[in-house]
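Table 4 source record.
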Amino acid sequence: MLWGFRGQSYVMPNDEAELDRLDLTHQKLRILLDNKLLLCPVENPKRVLDIGTGTGIWAIEYGDEHPDTEIIGTDLSPTQPSWVPPNVKFEVDDCEEPWTFPEKFDVVHCRYLAAAIQDWPRLVAQAFRFTRPGGWAEFQDYDLVYYSEDGTLGDEWIDGNGVMAVPIWKWMTTLLQAARDFGCDPCPGPKLEGWMKEAGFADVRAQKYKLPIGPWPKDEFLKTIGAWNLVQIEDGLEGFTLRLFTQTLGWKAEDVQVLLAEVRKDLRSSKVHAMFDL
């Protein structure tokens, strides 16, 4: 099943496995961000908008922690639970369509919509228009280019026949190009600061976090993050890949599965120190 609303679609599924992966990713980010749901210095917001709320877990937890705050979560698909805090509500909506909220928000929150948005500058501009003066917008998103800092992963890994010798590199570069061909940016993270400034936001602050893939780091905190990150990537591997490779690039499904089997070996290998950035 694919996400869909008003004829729009999203490359990821919205089955139970994907919803579980989204909740797992939420927990990973809570660990990464010192258990904080927001980093912006907002105090006692009255109205909060959560764009692309997914399972609604962020909105629900923020609502629990701030019972006097009204939280609206929007998404293409109604996959959120029906039992939620009384100050939280969900709406099926496409954030790339014109926003029609009757009031502005103290906080607009948006996270991990990499490869899901076709026009990021327009989305950020809408967030600006619907953030009240003195309010905050917070975007947390990825640069999904995998890399290593010790030479264990990179485009130099090509054998004598011109074939990429590390399957994870071949998969990652092909996947990102397929997302671009689909019309969505898979690496919005580094561009968000510029888009926010262009939209009119002031006091824009950018912070980058490294996300290792697997428990290979020596640092215990990064080892924990890497272990969580590996699980969510493996859980989503087919969801990330199948539609883009078969429908956008024309691969046969059996060829995709062969590649993914090799990618899983690389992901689990302690010899490949891959990471990407938030």
